[in-house]
Specification:
- The chain has about 800 residues and is α+β, with helices and mostly antiparallel strands.
- Helices cover about 55% and strands about 5% of the residues.
- The longest helix has 25 residues, at about 685-710.
- Belongs to the SMEK family.
- One of its GO terms (biological process) is DNA damage response.
- InterPro entries: ARM-like, ARM-type_fold, EVH1_PP4R3, P4R3-like_central_dom, PH-like_dom_sf, PP4R3-like.
Length: about 800
C-alpha cells in the first residue's frame, strides 16, 4: 500500500508510562466478522503482518491529539496510540471512529471516561449537565475559578467536563489576558490565583489544552503564571532565563521553520516539566502522563526530521572534522551531536538502530577520534558522552572500526589509545571522566558481548589487536610508577629488590587503582592473552610493589589482582609466583600491618585461607618452606597452622607412597647375583621397569630357583637366555605343582601355586615412571591383591 495518508506507527504504553513502538504500517477501518463490528486494522509495511486489530467499541473514549495522534484505552492499564504521518489520514480515521460512536468529529474526545467508583454517581447527573459552568473570566472571579479548577481534580468525569468547557469558550486565552493585567497592576493575590488555575489546568492532563497552552503566543504567559507560586516570597524569573540566558544556537542554519518551532516548543515544555512544576506527589504522578507523552512524541519527530535531512548532518560532520573550523564552532558542533544522541534515547530500539547506523555512515567515529584528542576540556567531555552512547548501543560497531584503522599509522592515534590517554590524563581530581572511560573500555574488551554467532573470530581478533597495540599504553603509568631499582639492572631470578618509592599523590594512586581494576577484569576474562602478557612483562612483581603504598585502597587493588590470579588455580601462574618469590611483598605487608584488625589484614588472610581450603599443594609447600617461621607466631587465626598441617599431611602421604614401593633387603647367593648382574649389564633401563614388573618378576624368580633345584642344565640355560635376551620375566615349565624354595637363607618368598602350563609375560612397560601414575599403580596393585588368592613377594632392588 503506497497511500502515505494511512501510514502510521503503533504505540503501546508500558508499565513505566513510556511509549513502546510496535511497528510501522498502514491503517484501515473494516468490518471484522470475528469481532462483529467495525475495527481498526494495521498491517506492517515490511511483511504485511497484523500489528493491530482493535474493534471500535461504542463506549471507548478516543482522543485526538496534536492533529496526528489518536489515543485510547482498551483495558485497564493498556493504552494504545496511532501516530499518523499526515494529518489528512488522522482526520479520516477519526471521522470513522466518530461515525461508529455517533459523535461529532469536531470534538477531540468521543467519550467521558468513567471509572468504576463513579458509575453510580454518573447515572444521577442530569442529562442537561453536559459541561461544567465556568464563572465569567474577570479579575474579581479569579478565586472562584481557582477553587473550581482545584475541586474537579479528584473526579475524572468532572475533569473531562471542565476540559471541554475550557476548550469551547477559548477560556485559556482569556485567563492569560488577565495574567498580563494582574502583572501590570502588580496584583499579587490575583497572580497567586492564576498560578493555582494554570497548574490545575496542566493537571487536567489533556493534550488539546496543551496544544493551546504551549503554542508560540501562549507559552511564555503560561510560564509567567507559574512564576508566582504562593509558597515563594519572591517570584522566580523563569521567563528571563528562557528569553535571555538560554540561547538557541544553530550550528548549521535550520531552514525548516516547522522544525525550528518544534525544537523551541520542546525545550520550553521540558523546562516546565523538569524545573517549574514541583515533583508530583504519589496521588498526582499520573496527572502529567499526557505531558510526558507530548514531549516524547515531539522528540521523536525532531530526531526523525533531522535524520531525514541528509545535507544538514553531512555539513555538521564535515565542519566537525575540518581543521579550519575554529575551536568555539567545533565546541558547538560537538555539543549539538551530544544533544542529538541524548534525544535519540527516546526512540524505540529499531529506530535507534537506524539512527546510530546513520551516524556511523556519516563518520561519527573518525570525527570522535579527532575531537577526543583536542585540548579543550569541554569538547573532550562532550565527545566522551557521545562515545558512551555509541559503545552502549553497539560495542561491536566500535570494535570493527578500531580494527579497520590503518595499521601503518602511529599507535598513538588509534581511537582506543586516544581513549586510554584521555583516561590517564584526566585533570579532574576525582577522576570522574577517567572512571567513565574505564567503564567504556571494560565494555569494549568484555568477551561476553562479543558476537559468537555472526562473527566467530571477533573475540580472538580484537583481543589480539588490543594486546598488541593498546595494552602497553594502558599499563605505562603502572610500569612507570613501579620501576626497578636503577642500580640493579640485571635482577636475579627470585629477587624482589624493587625501588620501594610508591606514588604518594592521591590522584596518581586513584589512576593506578583504575588501571589495576581493568587488569583484574582481564585476568578473569582473557585467560590466554593476559597470562602471556603478565609472564612477559613480569607484571605481578611490578603490581606488588604497590603493597608498600601509603594509600590502603591501592595496596588492596594490588592484592586483589594477585588474588584473582591465584583464584584461577592455574599451575603456570603458580610456578611463576614461586619462581619469582612473589609472596614476599604480601607477607611483608601483613607483618608491617602488625596486630591491626583492618581490611588489609582480612584480605591477606583470606588469600592464604583460600590456598589452604583449595589445597593448592605447590603454593602451600612454597609458603611453609620459605615463610612459616615468620608466620607461626600469628595465632589469632588458624590459617597458617592449617597450612602447616596440610604441608605435613602431604609429606606423610608422599613418604607412605615411597614406603609402599620399598623392598626388603635379601642376601643373594653368587648364582643369583650373577643373574642380576648379567641382567643389569644387558639393559640399563631394567631398574625403571622393575617397579611395574615386580609381580611378574617374582614368578620368574620362583621358576628360576626350581630350575636350579632340578639341575636341568638345558632348562636352566634356556631360562637364563630368556631373561638375558628379552629383559622380561622368564617362564619355566614346573616339575611339580608346588615348589618351596629354601636355597636362600633370607628368602621371604611364600609357597606359591604355579600354573600347570608355561606362562610367558610380555607386557609393555613405559621407560619413565611419572609421579602422576603412582595413584593408578596403587589402585592396580590393590585390585590384583583382592583378586589373587596368593600373596606375591616384593623384591628389593
Amino acid at each position: 500500500m503506497s497511500d502515505t495518508r494511512r501510514r502510521v506507527k503503533v504505540y503501546t504504553l508500558n508499565e513505566d508510562r513510556q511509549w513502546d513502538d510496535r511497528g510501522t504500517g498502514h491503517v484501515s477501518s473494516t468490518f471484522v466478522e470475528r469481532l462483529k463490528g467495525i475495527s481498526l486494522l494495521v498491517r506492517a509495511e515490511s511483511d504485511g503482518s497484523l500489528l493491530l486489530e482493535s474493534k471500535i467499541s461504542p463506549n471507548t473514549a478516543y482522543q485526538k491529539q496534536q492533529d496526528t495522534l489518536i489515543v485510547w484505552s482498551e483495558a485497564d492499564n493498556y493504552d494504545l496510540a496511532l501516530s499518523f504521518q499526515e494529518k489528512a489520514g488522522c482526520d479520516e480515521i477519526w471521522e470513522k471512529i466518530c461515525q461508529v460512536q455517533g459523535k461529532d468529529p469536531a470534538l477531540d474526545i468521543t467519550q467521558d471516561p468513567i471509572d468504576e467508583s463513579e458509575e453510580e454517581r454518573f447515572e444521577e447527573i442530569p442529562e442537561t449537565s453536559h459541561l461544567v459552568e465556568l464563572p465569567p473570566c474577570e479579575l474579581s472571579r479569579l478565586e472562584e475559578i481557582a477553587d473550581l479548577v482545584t475541586s474537579v481534580l479528584s473526579s475524572p468525569i468532572r475533569r473531562e467536563k471542565l476540559a471541554l468547557a475550557l476548550m469551547s469558550e477559548a477560556y485559556i486565552k482569556k485567563l492569560l489576558g488577565l495574567f498580563r493585567v494582574c502583572e501590570d497592576l502588580d496584583n499579587r493575590e490575583g497572580l497567586h490565583h492564576l498560578y493555582e488555575i494554570v497548574r490545575g489546568v496542566l493537571f487536567l492532563n489533556k493534550a488539546a489544552l496543551f496544544e493551546v497552552m504551549f503554542s508560540d503566543d501562549c507559552i511564555m504567559d503560561v510560564v509567567g503564571c507559574l512564576e508566582y507560586d504562593p509558597a515563594l516570597v519572591q517570584p522566580k524569573r523563569h521567563r528571563e532565563f528562557l528569553t535571555k540566558t538560554a540561547k538557541f544556537k544553530e550550528v548549521i542554519p535550520i531552514t525548516d521553520s516547522e522544525l525550528r518551532q518544534k525544537i523551541h516548543q520542546t525545550y520550553r515544555v521540558q523546562y516546565i516539566q523538569d524545573i517549574i512544576l514541583p515533583t508530583p506527589s504519589v496521588f498526582e504522578e499520573n496527572f502529567l502522563s499526557t505531558l510526558t507523552s507530548f514531549i516524547f512524541f515531539n522528540k521523536v519527530e525532531i530526531v526523525s526530521m533531522l535524520q531525514e535531512d541528509e545535507k544538514f548532518l553531512t555539513e555538521v560532520f564535515a565542519q566537525l572534522t575540518d581543521e579550519a573550523t575554529d575551536d568555539s564552532k567545533r565546541r558547538e558542533l560537538v555539543n549539538f551531536v551530544k544533544e542529538f544522541c541524548a534525544f535519540s534515547q527516546t526512540l524505540q530500539p529499531q529506530n535507534r538502530d537506524a539512527f546510530f547506523k546513520t551516524l556511523a555512515n556519516l563518520g561519527i567515529l573518525p570525527a570522535l577520534e579527532i575531537v577526543m584528542g583536542m585540548d579543550d576540556l569541554q569538547v573532550r567531555a562532550a565527545a566522551t558522552d557521545i562515545f558512551s552512547y555509541l559503545v552502549e548501543f553497539s560495542p561491536s560497531m566500535v570494535r570493527e572500526f578500531v580494527m579497520q584503522e590503518p595499521q601503518q599509522t602511529d599507535d598513538d592515534v588509534l581511537l582506543i589509545n586516544v581513549v586510554i590517554k584521555q583516561m590517564i590524563c584526566d585533570s579532574d581530581p576525582e577522576l570522574g571522566g577517567a572512571v567513565q572511560l574505564m567503564g567504556l573500555l571494560r565494555t569494549l574488551i568484555d568477551p561476553e558481548n562479543m558476537l559468537a554467532s555472526t562473527n566467530k573470530t571477533e573475540k580472538t581478533e580484537f583481543l589480539s589487536f588490543f594486546y598488541k597495540y593498546c595494552m602497553h599504553v594502558l599499563t605505562a603509568p603502572l610500569l612507570a610508577n613501579t620501576a626497578h631499582d636503577k642500580n640493579s639492572k640485571d635482577l636475579q631470578e627470585g629477587s624482589t629488590k624493587i625501588n620501594p618509592v610508591c606514588p604518594d599523590n592521591f590522584q596518581t594512586a586513584q589512576l593506578l587503582a583504575l588501571i589495576l581494576e581493568l587488569l583484574t577484569f582481564c585476568v578473569e576474562h582473557h585467560t590466554y592473552h593476559i597470562k602471556t602478557y603478565i609472564m612477559n612483562k613480569d607484571l605481578l612483581r611490578r603490581v606488588l610493589v604497590l603493597m608498600n603504598s601509603k594509600h590502603t585502597f591501592l595496596a588492596l587493588c594490588a592484592l586483589r589482582f594477585m588474588r584473582r590470579i591465584i583464584g584461577l588455580k592455574d599451575e603456570y601462574y603458580n610456578r611463576y609466583i614461586i619462581k619469582g618469590n612473589l609472596f614476599e611483598p604480601v607477607i611483608n605487608a601483613l607483618l608491617d600491618n602488625g596486630t591491626r584488625y583492618n581490611l588489609l589484614n582480612s584480605a591477606i588472610i583470606e588469600l592464604f585461607e583460600f590456598i589452604k581450603v583449595e589445597d593448592i599443594k605447590s603454593l602451600i609447600a612454597h609458603i611453609v618452606d620459605n615463610f612459616y617461621k615468620a608466620l607461626e607466631s600469628i595465632e589469632y587465626v588458624q590459617t597458617f597452622k592449617g597450612l602447616k598441617g596440610r604441608y605435613e599431611q602431604e609429606k606423610d602421604r608422599q613418604s607412605q607412597r615411597l614406603n609402599r614401593y620399598r623392598r626388603d633387603a635379601r642376601s643373594l647367593d653368587e648364582d643369583e647375583e650373577l643373574w642380576f648382574n648379567d641382567d643389569d649389564e644387558d639393559d640399563d633401563g631394567e631398574a625403571v621397569e622393575k617397579s611395574r614388573m615386580e609381580d611378574d618378576f617374582a614368578d620368574s624368580y620362583g621358576k628360576y630357583m626350581e630350575a636350579k633345584k632340578v639341575s636341568d642344565i638345558a632348562g636352566a640355560a634356556n631360562g637364563a637366555n630368556g631373561a638375558n635376551n628379552n629383559g622380561k620375566a622368564a617362564a619355566i615349565p614346573p616339575a611339580s605343582p608346588v615348589v618351596t624354595p629354601n636355597n636362600s637363607p633370607t628368602s621371604s618368598v611364600k609357597t606359591v601355586a604355579l600354573p600347570a602350563t608355561p606362562v610367558v609375560k610380555t607386557a609393555l612397560v613405559g621407560l619413565v615412571d611419572y609421579p602422576d601414575d603412582e595413584d593408578e599403580e596403587e589402585e592396580d596393585e590393590e585390585e590384583e591383591e583382592e583378586q589373587s588368592p596368593r600373596k606375591r613377594p616384593r623384591l628389593s632392588s
